[in-house]
Amino acid sequence: MSLVSSLTNVVAYIFMTYVILVTAVISNVFQIVAYLLMRPFSLTVYRKVVSFCQYLILSQLSFRFDWWGQSEITFYISDADRPFLGKETAVIVMNHRNSAEHLFCFAIAERLGLLRTFKAFCADYIKYVPTAGWSLSFNECIFLKRSYEKDRGIIVKQLEELHTYPGIFWLLFYCEGTRFTAERHQTSMEVARSKGLSELKHHLLPRTKGFKLCARVGRKY
Question: What are the residue boundaries of the Phospholipid/glycerol acyltransferase domain, all occurrences included (predicted)?
Fold first, then answer.
């Protein structure tokens, strides 16, 4: 029975992977066409098309989180803040330890109806990754080189462009700027000791310059 169950799981995984790859390729084609033919004439229509294509891709990942992973999410939120959850544009600040966090974010955004317009600060190389990376690029995610001097202009420019975005969206921000590893943690704590900062056991030191810039520019809108 366990062998049959294992084979069934493998077949299901391969099938779902095939479906999401095909969906992503088709979505990229529509996004490219929209970029060339719609964006020059109507930015609003272009954004609606590429966000729908993004939803076709990310919703399948959210499905895996819920159905395949059989995961549940519990919200802890005050009564005062609850009416605003998913009802306004926001910067979501998270710690970054592994890839599962992306699925977690997608699942939350799906529950709140924000998966279509979900955006994030991403490492620059991701925009060159076929299918998923291209889709995020078309959907106006902000790609950074992890150097404040190089990224400052990019952050300001793209946040100003997002000011005209129709409707609400979430912008995901990983405060460490990279995922947790033992080697990076050791280096991060050496920096903490050299600056007289508290040492963290389970996280890297947050990169505050980019967040402060994001908050400062965001307040204008």
Answer: 90-212
